[in-house]
Design goal:
This protein is an all-alpha fold. The chain is built from 7 helices and no strands. The longest helix has 21 residues. The radius of gyration is 15 Å and the shape is globular.
Length: about 140
């Protein structure tokens, strides 16, 4: 997954992603808009068709990040670095927005840049995502006791 993450890293340095970072900064204080973004990103990830297990793994982790953002905004989870949250929201904006380096209507290639960027985010922020997974698992375990 390193080469995919490397490509995602280079995407994170382009003007389109920098624009998404500025948009993410503006969204951070707007829970309703974050909710709409989460719904849009979730639907786009859910609709992406692939038989590749790597894609499924990336999607599962991004769904976890969507749950993390939801928990952050409803106040149940706050143990995340603000910069990580901001970058993650920018990645979701990039995934959810039709404005891409490669338009999503182009089969396979249209989702490739989204996947690369998600792979980079997952690789760079794995510790934050694992911390949330532990919290989420313990919350579910407590809720079922």
């Amino acid at each position: 997954m390193s080469s995919l993450a490397d490509k995602g890293y280079s995407i994170s340095k382009n003007a389109v992603f920098k624009y998404m970072m500025s948009k993410a900064t503006g969204l951070m204080g707007k829970p309703v808009k974050i909710g709409l973004l989460l719904t849009t990103a979730y639907e786009k990830l859910k609709d992406s068709n692939s038989n590749e297990s790597g894609v499924d793994q990336i999607k599962d982790i991004m769904f976890r990040f969507i749950r993390l953002v939801k928990a952050y905004y409803n106040g149940t989870y706050r143990d995340i670095n603000t910069k990580s949250m901001l970058l993650g929201v920018a990645v979701l904006l990039y995934v959810a927005t039709p404005l891409d380096l490669i338009p999503d209507f182009i089969p396979i290639l249209g989702f490739a840049d989204d996947l690369s960027l998600m792979a980079w985010f997952i690789s760079a922020f794995q510790e934050e995502l694992q911390k949330f997974q532990l919290w989420e698992d313990s919350t579910v375990a407590v809720g079922h006791s």
